[in-house]
Design goal:
- The protein is an alpha+beta fold and about 220 residues long.
- The chain contains 6 helices and 12 strands.
- It has helices spanning about 5-10, 10-25, 60-65, 70-80, 135-150, 165-175; strands at about 30-40, 50-55, 85-90, 90-100, 105, 110-115, 120-125, 155-160, 175-185, 190-195, 200, 210.
- The strands form 2 sheets. It has a 9-stranded mixed β-sheet with strand order 2-3-4-7-8-1-9-10-11.
- β5 and β6 (about 110-115) form a beta hairpin.
- It is globular and about 50 Å long.
Length: about 220
């Protein structure tokens, strides 16, 4: 896609944000991220496609399966209280989704999200490459919806890079609503962000900035 096409598709603000992120990624110790915070209602999630099931996976079981996250990442997520849902087509694992309640500490920027009582945070969604044009996505979201309903929850929250139309559009088709934007710049050990308190923190110091989504 040419720069002009990118500009036309994403709009001015998102194109500039995308370009800034690309430039920052080339400079050691510097980063830029801008996210759209999305809430997907339980009512918008699809029905389970035929032949698929979704169930919660234990740490031990997940170790025997192949996903995108290495073992140390898996261990960290379980240690932080996340649960892993696995979508299966017959006996074949076709995707996973990770869910958290109460709060979620982001691993790309130094931000802690405080979650509403009626919502869970979803992150790390992965679908096998050879199943991305099939029904795995619908199965994974159907299973996520069933898990939310079993917990008495009404919606799923997540953050999506502002330029990632491949992820934003499916969320919008499920009735996703934007709760706000979060932008974070890092220069060495200093992180400055919008939509959080405090706006500036020492990254990795153990006291992340807080983005309070309760009441939204």
């Amino acid at each position: 896609m040419s720069f002009r096409e990118t500009w036309r598709t994403l709009g001015t603000a998102t194109t500039l944000s995308y370009a800034l992120g690309r430039v920052a990624a080339r400079i050691p110790g510097v980063s830029w991220h801008r996210y759209r915070l999305i809430a997907v209602p339980l009512s918008g999630m699809p029905k389970m496609p035929r032949g698929h099931v979704v169930r919660e996976l234990s740490a031990g079981e997940l170790k025997t399966l192949v996903i995108d996250a290495p073992l140390d990442v898996q261990a960290d997520r379980f240690a932080r209280g996340l649960i892993c849902l696995g979508a299966f087509d017959g006996e074949v694992l076709v995707g996973v989704n990770w869910l958290a309640r109460g709060q979620y500490d982001e691993d790309e920027v130094d931000v802690r999200f405080l979650l509403p009582d009626d919502a869970a945070w979803d992150t790390g969604l992965w679908i096998r490459e050879d199943r991305r044009l099939g029904r795995a996505f619908a199965a994974l979201w159907a299973g996520t919806g069933a898990w939310l309903a079993a917990q008495g929850l009404k919606r799923s929250l997540s953050r999506i890079a502002d330029y990632n139309l491949g992820s934003l559009r499916p969320h919008e088709r499920m009735g996703g609503r934007t709760l706000g934007m979060l932008a974070a710049a890092r220069l060495g050990a200093l992180q400055v962000a919008t939509g959080v308190r405090p706006a500036a923190v020492r990254a990795g110091a153990g006291t992340p900035a807080v983005c309070d989504l309760r009441g939204r």
